Amino acid sequence: MAKKSESADIQHNKKIEVEENLKQDQVPGASEEEETVEETAEEEQEEEIKEPTTEEKLAELQDRYLRLSAEFDNFRKRTLKEKIDLQKSANESLLGALLPVADDFDRAMQSVEEAKDIEAVKEGMRLISGKFQGFLNQQGVKEIEAVNKAFDTDLHEAITKVPVPSKKLKGKVVDVVQKGYYLNEKVLRFSKVVIGE
Predict the structure, then answer these.
(1) What are the domain boundaries of the chain?
(2) Which of 9, 105, 111, 114 is the least buried, fewest Cβ under 10 Å from its Cβ?
(3) Residues 6+ apart with CB under 8 A from 161
(4) Which of 93, 85, 189 lies closest to 142, judged by CA?
(5) How many angstroms separate the CA atoms of 40 and 145, rounded?
(6) What contacts 188, CB < 8 A, 6 or more positions away?
(7) pLDDT at 165
(8) Any idea what DSSP says for residue 167?
(9) Which residue has better confidence, 49 or 122?
(10) Angle between the N-to-C axes of helices 54-114 and 118-138, in degrees from 0 to 180, rounded to the nearest 10
């Protein structure tokens, strides 16, 4: 039994030696193979890291430019369409608010043809005029005061000059040919006036 155990130990020791020899033989070869694999992987990474060529950069910039140009063109078209739609809807509400005044004028014209009392016709016209002035005021339209005011080129447009009896009226507006209007403190239409000289 002791012989069996010794022979088993010897075989076991030989087996370990053979395995160690094999390992030593494989390690140098394996390390060379691993080095080759690592070098190949590093070369591939270096190729991936390389900067793009000038042509590639130019192509990328041209692509960006084309996309940006197309986006801007779409934006411009969209805002233009929105602006047109906004103007249409703004005019719609304004004209809708004018319709009651137009109705009053229609009724007044019908009654003028049948009217025998001129005072009633005058009163009806005054009411319509007042209603229309009220509408203009609601929209921010206000008349430019001109008569007996100093001539101002920012508000008035001179049509002609006429001689005046007093020196106080020289350089002042003596008559208004066409009324001027503000729209929210901005001149909507200049007053056409006659100036004293």
Answers:
(1) 65-139, 141-197
(2) 114
(3) 194, 195, 196, 197
(4) 189
(5) 91
(6) 141, 180, 181, 182
(7) 86
(8) G
(9) 122
(10) 160
Distance CA 176, CA 147 (A): 7
Strands 173-178 and 156-162: unpaired
Architecture of domain 65-139: Alpha-Beta Complex (3.90)
- Show Cβ contacts of residue 154 under 8 Å, excluding neighbours closer than 6 positions: 187
Fold of 141-197: Nucleotide Exchange Factor Grpe; Chain A, domain 2 (2.30.22)
- Helix H or strand E segment including 176: strand 173-178
Asked if pLDDT for residue 5 goes beyond 80, the answer is: no
Mention every residue, 6+ apart, whose C-beta is less than 8 A from residue 59. none
93-102 burial, b at 16+ Cβ within 10 Å, e below that, comes to eeeeeeeebe
End-to-end CA distance of the chain: 150
The first and second tokens of residue 148, run together, are 């007996």
Q: Are 156 and 190 in contact (CB under 8 A)?
A: yes
Q: Give the mean pLDDT of 156-163.
A: 90
pTM of the model: 0.51
Phi, psi of 157 (to 5 degrees): -125, 115
